[in-house]
Specification:
The structure is a homodimer. Chain A is an alpha+beta fold. Helices cover 29% and strands 29% of the residues of chain A. Chain A contains eight helices and 17 strands. In chain A, strands 7, 8, 9, 12, 13, 14, 15, 16 and 17 form a nine-stranded mixed beta sheet that branches. In chain A, α2 packs parallel to α3. The first copy, chain A, is globular, with a radius of gyration of 21 Å. The N and C termini of chain A lie far apart (62 Å). In chain A, 51% of the residues are buried. Chains A and B meet through β2, β3, α2, β4 and β5 of A and β2, β3, α2, β4 and β5 of B. β2 of chain A pairs antiparallel with β3 of chain B.
Amino acid sequence: VIRMPLSERKLIERIRRSARGGEGVVTGIGDDCAVLRIPSGHEMLVTTDFSIENVHFRRDWHPPELVGWRCLTRGLSDIAAMGGEPLAAFLSLAIASDVPQQWVSRFLKGLLKLAKKFNVPLAGGDTAQSKGGIQADIIVVGSVPEGKAILRSGAKPGDQIYVTGKLGAASAILKNLQQSELSKSKQSRAKRVPVPIIRQLRPLPRLEIGQWLRERRMASAMIDLSDGLSTDLDHLCEESHVGAEIEAEGIPRARLGSAKSRSAKNPVALEFALHGGDDYELLFTSTAELPSKVAGVQVTRIGRITKTLGMRLLGDDKAQRLKAGGWEHFTKQE
Amino acid sequence: VIRMPLSERKLIERIRRSARGGEGVVTGIGDDCAVLRIPSGHEMLVTTDFSIENVHFRRDWHPPELVGWRCLTRGLSDIAAMGGEPLAAFLSLAIASDVPQQWVSRFLKGLLKLAKKFNVPLAGGDTAQSKGGIQADIIVVGSVPEGKAILRSGAKPGDQIYVTGKLGAASAILKNLQQSELSKSKQSRAKRVPVPIIRQLRPLPRLEIGQWLRERRMASAMIDLSDGLSTDLDHLCEESHVGAEIEAEGIPRARLGSAKSRSAKNPVALEFALHGGDDYELLFTSTAELPSKVAGVQVTRIGRITKTLGMRLLGDDKAQRLKAGGWEHFTKQE
């Protein structure tokens, strides 16, 4: 109804100049569709993920490069969770008229930096005017040898549960930002988390370890940690029709440096590692005993799959029922 | 930052229940990625298109079923413009908290009705909270035999230019709606375009004719008419490094029934057929003489490709320079 052909066109031109063809991209930006070639004997993977201003990020908190980087991470992490290889990315970007061109340039810079790191061409997308704020939808297309995708539905009772990396950094930092904003509004001294710490939040999608697990048929089920451990484990259990026991002490917690003394790093509270989202690590199940490091990334056993449905969190001397996004104390020990 | 896991989950469940697997969909909604099988010897097509409230539609004007239908049309029409076959659709949907559930149900109903018509499974997507209004991004994946996609870049001087169907209905009706709103705000009698006419606006993506042209190698270049004839022809000329001459009288104009006498149908003004968007017909070039009807759809020759760059509109006794989205009168005849 209301259109901005000129600035849309500028945006397309900018993306087009930044985008590079890859070997799988026959025709990229500039036609009705992109044309891609899938390696023979492979199936195709497709994933889409929104990054929405004031839902997934805030312009006053997150540097635009970080928003762009994390936007693409969301898609690549889903490809990693299938054991797949990314082939091309597509970006649908809606921008309100009050968003500075500079913001868009820096957003694209961050996105393309990660794309280059994993050799993923930006092969198309759409641009539009938004009636408020920024909405980005990232689509990543990948491939996996036929029948070899690692699904959420393959976990069996007795399988061990593993996670890559360390958990809880993203949500702990967000909480800090929210609290410092609250204290600011109460006229007390603002405790903004310094930009260097925000800049640490550049999650690397775990593509290499996903492929490593797929090639060795070492994972019976896998999911990426985008919603938080408890929620994503719940998804995996639901799809596999199993339950799970998690050892609280076993969960690898991220350590954050404080603003004053960068050397003193404290692990985040358990609730962030357990329920916080946006870590983009992998959660997988396996009958095998995994090495503690794969492709340079820490791998930690955190529990096991059970026949009994539901999730339980095992502590020092008690068990709690674990629910997606929160947990309830049992009245008696189990 | 702020999440609505419960209602998002409800939405996913609703989409999941509505969605059906297709023969190409190995794994659909419910995993990190969808897994698709591409027919052997085929390349993959990917297209993404936003449908944004108050940009592409208005909630007070467009019935939700129509918004859903047109949302998917945008994607399928791009597949048609490559001569391809759709394989699966993905929907990323962001909804503000004040949007009634009923609106979402009716939107999905319209989208899935068109999906069923063309046997395209809804195989995944994303859902999110929006901070205002509705943003939908449709992704359609299709396939085409290797090397056979009809691109925008293949037009040669001397090729004839054709369009399918009739043009200008969507933009003419929008103009009516805008004018009746203006007159309404001036306290004069509102002239709302009646719902039956809006309901006529259910464009059918021209998949069959696109495939017909590709199978017979009859089209040298093709694009779908989403931005308007003058703008889309300009895109095609730019990609093919050619110019074009269009005969004003030759452009097939849509006829709209008036509210009072549905029998008296008048063709829309030339400017709507020439510059109005959202028709979702195909524009293609060919050295062949096409039949006047293909797959039940009218095919009309409207001009020819020229070596001289730029577009010209030929009238009764004069030629005008034709520009994307508007035209300028020449001071002298050519």
